[in-house]
């Protein structure tokens, strides 16, 4: 007997099905799957765009870059500058306000005060708004605010300290020199924007007279970017040259030292400064005690 014929079946390979599926138009696939897939794709795209928009909005918000010093100290007569850096200001306005009277000093690049000492600098292509105060006075000390007109308003405070101009004599408070040597005193004034018009020296209550019959007295004055230096020289020092010497600038507080002209009685002290005298003091005290003990022994 012959074999019974097997029923013919149509076999479609998985590969053919996948290829056919892949070649189908996207619209057909979406239509075949229904509108839910299309909605998912569109909603995902929308959510992604919204996230990017929110992130971009967050990145573009203005904020302060407070890397610059916010505690600034200056000297009377100098120029003070407060530097405020604002990132992503966009169309926002940056202003400077004086805290003590809530006075708006500047807004954008414009000045809103009748005091010509105040100005604002905003170099092109920079994020800096710099408040400048020329010829600073003691009343200028206090808090200044850099502001951005966002909602709510952003504020960054700066503290300005104003110190009195101060003369300083480089030598120690007590200067020891030997009779016949040269007295040399150097006075420095820490004001460079408005240097003193004059620097005078006093010996005690009297003005040092460079044209006196005594002679041998001279003054050297030098003005540089760092300040003014006045150097007093008194040659052939005499015992009468001892006393208090005061440097008096025209626009700063004075400074004083005391000069001791010695007649060779204490060689260890013939140096500038109290250190030499301090080191000599124990020796002098020991000598006095030895002398006292010796005298007591002699009396007994």
> Average pLDDT across residues?
78
CATH architecture descriptor of the domain at 63-163: Sandwich
Largest sheet: 6 strands, mixed
Task: Work out the oligomeric state of the chains in this entry.
Answer: single chain
Helix proportion range: 10-25%
What do you see in this structure?
With 300 residues, this protein is of the alpha+beta class. Among the domains are: 63-163, Sandwich (Immunoglobulin-like), CATH 2.60.40.10; 167-262, Immunoglobulin-like. Helices cover 23% and strands 36% of the residues. The protein has four helices and 19 strands. A hairpin with a 6-residue loop joins strand 7 and strand 8. The chain is elongated and about 75 Å long. The model is unreliable at 9-57 and 271-286 (pLDDT under 50).
How would you summarize the topology of this molecule?
Elements: H1 14-23, H2 26-33, H3 35-59, E1 63-64, E2 71-75, E3 80-87, E4 94-98, E5 103-107, E6 110-111, E7 118-121, E8 128-133, E9 142-148, E10 154-163, E11 167-169, E12 174-178, E13 183-189, E14 199-203, E15 206-207, E16 217-224, E17 227-234, E18 243-249, E19 255-262, H4 274-299
Parallel strand pairs: 2-10, 12-19
Antiparallel strand pairs: 1-3, 3-8, 4-5, 4-9, 5-6, 7-8, 9-10, 11-13, 13-17, 14-15, 14-18, 16-17, 18-19
């Amino acid at each position: 007997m012959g074999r019974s014929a097997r029923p013919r079946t149509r076999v479609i390979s998985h590969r053919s099905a996948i290829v056919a599926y892949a070649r189908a138009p996207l619209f057909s696939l979406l239509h075949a799957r229904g509108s839910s897939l299309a909605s998912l794709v569109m909603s995902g795209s929308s959510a992604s765009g919204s996230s990017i928009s929110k992130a971009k909005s967050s990145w573009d918000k203005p904020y302060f870059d407070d890397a610059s010093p916010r505690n600034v100290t200056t000297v009377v007569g100098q120029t003070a500058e407060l530097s405020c850096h604002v990132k992503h200001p966009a169309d926002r306005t940056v202003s400077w306000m004086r805290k003590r009277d809530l006075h708006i000093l500047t807004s954008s690049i414009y000045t809103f005060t009748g005091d010509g000492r105040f100005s604002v600098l905003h170099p092109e292509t920079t994020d800096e708004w710099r408040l400048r105060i020329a010829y600073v006075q003691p009343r200028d000390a206090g808090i200044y605010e850099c502001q951005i007109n966002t909602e709510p308003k952003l504020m960054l405070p700066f503290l300005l300290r104003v110190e009195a101009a101060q003369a300083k004599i480089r030598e120690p408070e007590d200067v020891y020199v030997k009779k016949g040597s040269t007295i040399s005193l150097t006075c420095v004034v820490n004001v460079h924007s408005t240097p003193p018009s004059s620097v005078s020296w006093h010996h005690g209550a009297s003005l040092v007279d460079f044209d006196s019959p005594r002679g041998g007295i001279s003054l050297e004055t030098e003005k540089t970017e760092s300040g003014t230096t006045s150097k007093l020289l008194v040659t052939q020092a005499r015992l009468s040259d001892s006393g208090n010497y005061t440097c008096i600038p025209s626009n700063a507080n004075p400074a004083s030292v005391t000069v001791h002209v010695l007649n060779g009685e204490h060689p260890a002290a013939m140096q500038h400064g109290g250190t030499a005298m301090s080191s000599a003091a124990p020796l002098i005290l020991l000598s006095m005690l030895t002398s006292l003990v010796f005298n007591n022994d002699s009396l007994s």
